[in-house]
Design goal:
Elements: H1 2-11, E1 14-15, E2 20-21, E3 27-34, E4 37-41, H2 54-57, E5 63-67, H3 71-81, E6 84-91, E7 96-102, E8 108-114
Parallel strand pairs: 5-8
Antiparallel strand pairs: 1-3, 2-3, 3-4, 6-7, 7-8
């Protein structure tokens, strides 16, 4: 499956589960470890599956947020593999270096790295804290 190859090249994904395919060779299920997370994949098919791609839906239904110890290297690897830049990788006001990509299958990914740790806020109205 092209997506498994792309995620391997772009995000150093490792297939961690047995791959199940249908009679026509379509991917029914596999699991990829990306960093410390597992992503489950299936191909869209005409057999009544409820899995639909962003391209078929004409919309994004989720954005995968990933954290990296070297986000610049991860970013370069993903762009070189064919990801499209949506928001450039930049230092953000909230203490992260982050950007957003679209993979060749329409899925969106935010790649981030914490670059500054802020102390917790306890004031009224800030994340439900109390004065």
């Amino acid at each position: 499956m092209r997506a498994v190859d792309f995620y391997r090249d772009a995000f150093a994904a490792v297939e961690v589960a047995e791959r199940f395919t249908g009679p026509a060779g379509q991917l029914i299920h596999t699991e990829l470890r990306i960093g410390d997370s597992v992503v489950m994949l299936t191909e869209e098919s005409d057999n009544g599956t409820t899995a639909k791609s962003p391209e078929s839906l004409g919309a994004v239904t989720a954005i995968m947020a990933t954290y990296w110890t070297d986000v610049d290297a991860a970013w370069r690897r993903a762009v070189t593999a064919g990801a499209e830049v949506i928001f450039a990788l930049e230092d953000q006001f909230h203490g992260e270096r982050a950007g957003r990509l679209r993979d060749p299958f329409g899925q969106q990914w935010t790649l981030s790295q914490r670059i500054e740790v802020w102390p917790p806020r306890c004031g009224p109205g800030l994340h439900g804290g109390r004065a």
